């Protein structure tokens, strides 16, 4: 009987203590949530400075859906294949720091992200190789989905080719911003820019889009040439005649094979 | 007064002798190591993949943004993702790791996930047969023939139940901390946690955000967990007064709690569901700044709804219990 008495007091005592603690917690929570003090606004702190290690390849991929790997049935896109084939080479220790590709990203959005997002800068500073794809959405946004939908709007297409021409100048200015931001964040890393290709080469009305793509690539090369650490890898020739086998079913993004071809070129460039 | 204390002590000991609490502790001893192991594998995996937590958070943000750009995803879900992106970005901008692996963070996240379903179910195992159980075994007659007012009998049961709910929450926190600490380390009490995110549609307003040390955050969160557990306990007591069989009272309460979790994950289409108690149980979510399950819910709204349910439950249980005929 006495031991059960002691047990009762023990349980009761412990529980009572916890109960009081809980009530204090509730009190704090109510005060904190309903009457927050505005004075204690946390300051934005700078992320620690990063420097890339010399002896290995530290890769950051940034850009649009091609970087993300949209259309690749195996997932991962060209970035994964680049890293995999580099990692297989014992001389080059390759490591993917981050893949920051976002589907549908335009060059102006990327430039904005680079300017404001310190997390991205943090990752880029760790890298000594930066893989970049951008511009496809700036140039082709109006045309996306043309190839696989039946040509219900042929008249519209020729109009949108004019839009491509118009998008060219603006897109190139945006690209220039992206490059200068990249240079500001990490002037030492090798930047490899994937040139654009014309995904609509097999669509009669849009075949001329290749001319715009070439203009883009040429001007982009001019810009890249201005920075000693940046190079371009051309991709347009891969897709001119092999659209059927290298493009995925959305008729815009490469498929697994297409990404493999791009990856091979990147590896060669490195 | 002394008599009441003795009654409470008697009830407490009766509940202890039923060994339900022991079962609960055993369940916790099985489940917590499982979650610790799962968390450990995730942490290991991320450690191999990312240079540090900033890269990991950055990748999380990028992945979410990618999912957002897909148009196959329902708008409701996108909204939550957008909010999560903004909060993660806030943590990253302020160079604070949102989930640094340590015993305290694990405990915090475990309690946070347990509050909606797991804790209510555990509370039900101790609370559901308080009165109906005595009816089943017939001991209720013994109890009520004693020269004690009926409300005192029920009050002592309620007090004992409260004590056990506290004990349950306390033991859970303690076990979580001790077990996960073995793998993640026992530190992390002083880590900064952000609270006070206000959500407008899919935008996050950060003007009220402030830093709280993790120990204080834990205290606040556990307090809220206790509050929702108590609401469930009081309602379980009410059902066990109203319903003759323990099985039935258990099923009724479980069904309503589970229905609540389903409703809060499907949500939105039926807006009046927000007045149900089970939809409002996840109080810590407000602390964390996650969007409420149904439009129009807020911290104070949920507090009031839970309070009304609890008070109504108390009124019903006491008025029924004091007047009820005890048959058979």
TrEMBL record, chain A:
Residues annotated as domain SGNH hydrolase-type esterase: 61-260
Q: Does the keyword Membrane apply?
A: yes
* An annotated Gene Ontology molecular function: phosphatidylcholine lysophospholipase activity
Highest taxon of source: Bacteria
Q: Which residues cross the membrane?
A: 7-30
Q: Which Pfam families match?
A: Lipase_GDSL_2
What keyword terms does UniProt attach to this protein? Membrane, Transmembrane, Transmembrane helix
Q: What is this protein called?
A: Lysophospholipase L1
Automatic annotation (TrEMBL), chain B:
* GO cellular component terms listed in the entry, alphabetical order: plasma membrane
Q: Which UniProt keywords apply?
A: Membrane, Transmembrane, Transmembrane helix
Q: Which residues cross the membrane?
A: 21-40, 114-133, 154-180, 223-243, 250-270, 299-321
Q: Which Pfam families match?
A: ABC2_membrane_2
Q: Name one GO molecular function term.
A: ABC-type transporter activity
- The organism's place on the tree of life at top rank: Bacteria
Keyword Electron transport part of the UniProt annotation = no
Its name, as the record gives it, is ABC-2 type transport system permease protein
Species per Swiss-Prot/TrEMBL record:
Paenibacillus algorifonticola
